[in-house]
Structures are given as C-alpha cells and as structure tokens.
C-alpha cells in the first residue's frame, strides 16, 4: 500500500470551497486535500492518501485523533442521553470534570484555583482573564509581549503582536503595552530588567499594569521559550507592582511542554491561567480560565456565554486527565520524546547552519525565511507529513507531533522533515552535500 498522497491536488468537489467558503480560510490553502478520517497520529484524505499529523490542530490534539478511551467515554455518554447543552447548569459531567481537575491536576501540584468556564474558544478564556485582571486591579493597561499570540477577539487581539492579525480589527487596539519577550534583543539583554526599569521610572510613560499576559513558549510567535529565571522575574515584578501574572497556557499547556501546565517546577505560580486547545483531549471546543480564589470577584453572569462548559468536552477532558495524567509516567514519556525531537532538530540545524527553538514537544527550526519554510512544509506534505510554520515571518518550521506518537513513527516523520530541509537548504560544509540525505528510506511504512 502506498502511503504518499496521489499527485492531483484537488477533487472536483473542492470547487465548492472557492464558491461558498470565505477567503479567510487558511490552512486548507497549503494542504488542499479533503480529509475524511483521522485516527491516532494519522489523517486520511478522500483519495486514499495518508498523512502523519505533526500539526495536531495547533496542539489541540495532543493525545492524537479519536483516542479510543476518550471516544468510548463520549460515545457512552451520548448513548445514555447525557446532557449535551445546559448553559452553566450543574451536570454530572461538570461535577466529574471539576472533581477530576481537583484530584488529578490541582492537588498533586499544590495549586489552588477556581475554574471559570468561558465560551469554548481560547480567545474567550483570554478575554475573561484580562477582564478579571482589570476588574480586580481597577487598572486598564495590560503588559503583553512581542510575538505573543492570544486570540482574535478584540481584547485578546490587542494583546497579540502580529500586525497581519491586528490589521483585521478595524478599530484601534489599545490598553496594552507590548514589551520585549525574553531574548528579544539577543542573549545579552535581560528584557525583564528593562521592564523593571520602565515600571520603576515614574517618567517612563508606562502606566501601572493590571496584568502581565505571557506564554512560556510562544506557539504562534516562533516557539520562543522563556527561561524559568525570566518568568520568575516577571512574576516577581507583577507582584511588586500590583499586577496579576496571567500565563496563557492554551498552546503550551496540556502536556505540550512536558507537564500539564507549562510553568510547573519553575518556582512561580500564576494568578490566572488560561487553557483551551488540548483541554478536551479530543479536539472539542472547550476553554477554561483558572483563577486564584481571592480573585473571584465576578458577579453572577458578568462574563457569560451560551456555550460555557461544553458537556461533551467535560466528558472527554475527564477521560483524558484519568488516562494520561493520573500516572506520572506520561510526563516522563513526553520528556523522552522531547529529547528525541531536540536531538533530531539540533542535528538538522547543525548541518545547515540553522537554529532551533522551543521546549519539550513544542519545538521548531528557524529556516531563515517564510518562503524557505513554505517550500519545506510543502515538500513534507507531498511526502505525507502535515507540518506548519510559526514566527513573525513564518520562518520557523514547527513540530507539534501528537504527544502519544510511538518512537519509530516519530523518527520516520522527522526523517521526512530532515530530507525536505536537505532538499531545500544547502549544508554549511560543502563536503557534507550528501550527508544531508537521511539514511532512512523516505516515506512511511504502512
Ligand atoms: C490558539 C491560541 C489562543 C486562541 O485560541 P482560540 O481557540 O483560537 O481562540 C490563545 N492563546 C494561545 C497561546 C494560543 O495558542
């Protein structure tokens, strides 16, 4: 059985997308296939092509597609006429989710958070977080960071750095100061010190902030990973200046960087944490804002939404916490696979004079430009590997493989990436021309 996709890029049916789907569509442009089935680490298209998924719904599918345990839990729940929609009424599914969150996630980490169910997308969790910070502190300004990505609704978009995304707003995006993220001016400059200087200078023009909103690893902004020291400094600065520390863990959380939370074992505790993407475990829409109980000053319904708490997602998220997070083994597996990824990317980087980014199973390689990155991801796709780019100029090829991928398949997918890079970029050492070729056979075993 051939596993690489057939050459024709479109089926007659795809005309419907040009006719009826808005031009705002994006991923479907670089991967113009029609997908009809997905299981584990694989996606299948309507023409029999099989693709290894190194995008994982931008880290919404950390446990792979249709994980059998999660799927069964959902099938059983639906078959028993479990409540699908109930606004924010109490349901069995919500009670089980909250108890499991408490027992499996919060208590073992000595974390004390209340869960606020927002509308089911990440941007909603961010809106809730910054609204709450403004309400609690009575301040307007939020400090966000260069290359940060926090969502598409106006409040979260104001905190997002990317000009292309910001341009869609149509109104001024204000009340946010974008400060340099860790490493923005290179290794020599500690940007936390710069921020401290600005905060302490009454004439810097920086208003007292309600919150610092930060990703520990910047998912869309180029896989920049902040150091634990920098994050601790930012957390300390927040405390000192009466601002709240919000970690946007929508992409870096749920195991992507190793632990359930990306900030575990870093020596600080955020005041507020946002989660979405892989929280449901199955790709169902589900978002959560976690807040310290003392900050819970909301009036009933003050931030609401029709789809607060998705009961189907409660069920799959509960199953995911039990399946993966009740046993520390899973975090160990992620760490081991993260090291494989690090070594492989380092090898590619060394061969071609490139650099790598990221942490855990959230890493990428800087190939220099968006055009080069697009060539590489296009070659990968033609070889049956779904992989995307990240960064200010889309210059980072990012690997977001499912966390549950077995080692052989993982290596085979990385072989495709390595080969695609070797085909696109010359090796630094001329004598290494042929060493760019992988010693594994290109293509994936059936
Ligand atoms: C994806 C993402 C968001 C927005 O989530 P949506 O579900 O797309 O609204 C916010 N923050 C981060 C860090 C993200 O990666």
Automatic annotation (TrEMBL):
Pathways per UniProt: Amine and polyamine biosynthesis; ectoine biosynthesis; L-ectoine from L-aspartate 4-semialdehyde: step 1/3
Keyword Membrane (UniProt): no
Membrane-spanning ranges: none
PROSITE patterns: AA_TRANSFER_CLASS_3
Keyword annotations: Aminotransferase, Pyridoxal phosphate, Transferase
Pfam families in UniProt: Aminotran_3 (PF00202)
E.C. number: 2.6.1.76
Necessary cofactors: pyridoxal 5'-phosphate
Class of enzymatic activity (EC top level): transferase
Gene Ontology molecular function, alphabetical: diaminobutyrate-2-oxoglutarate transaminase activity
Domain of life: Bacteria
Protein family membership: Belongs to the class-III pyridoxal-phosphate-dependent aminotransferase family.
Protein name, per record: Diaminobutyrate--2-oxoglutarate transaminase
Top-level taxonomy: Bacteria, Pseudomonadati, Pseudomonadota, Alphaproteobacteria, Sphingomonadales
Gene: ectB
